[in-house]
Amino acid sequence: MKSEYDFSKSVKNPYAKNLKKQVTLRLGVDVIKYFKNLSEETGVPYQNLINLYLQDCAHSQKKLRLNWASK
After folding, report:
1. pTM over 0.70
2. Measured between alpha carbons, how far is 7 from 17 in angstroms, rounded to an integer?
3. Kind and range of the H or E run holding 47
4. Could you give the 3-state DSSP secondary structure of residue 51?
5. Residue 25's CB: how many other CB atoms inside 10 A?
6. Which residues contact 46 (CB under 8 A, 6 or more apart)?
7. Are 51 and 18 in contact (CB under 8 A)?
């Protein structure tokens, strides 16, 4: 291993903007159970499945439709 390296000709990682960021979410037990079951069926880790689903929603610009019941 060299004692010093020359980084003067290095370039920025073009994929750095696509890295994931860790966040904390509070998800319902039923949601976690659903994705864990789906994970067992597909062999894809459940956190990746949740990310893929949310990514699909973001790319297709899905909007959540809520209909609150009036009292």
Report:
1. no
2. 21
3. helix 46-59
4. helix
5. 7
6. 32, 35, 36, 38, 39
7. no
Tokens for 11? 């370039």
DSSP 68: P
Decide: residue 65, CB within 10 A, 0-12 exposed, 13-18 middle, 19+ buried. exposed
Rounded CA separation 71/63 (Å): 25
Structure tokens belonging to residue 34: 């659903």
Backbone angles phi, psi at 23, to 5 degrees: -135, 160
The answer to whether 36 and 51 are in contact (CB under 8 A) is: no
φ, ψ for residue 40 (rounded to 5)? -65, -35
Q: Which amino acid is at 30?
A: D
Give tens-digit pLDDT for 4-45. 999 999 998 888 877 888 899 999 999 999 999 999 999 999
Structure tokens given for 17: 């903007």
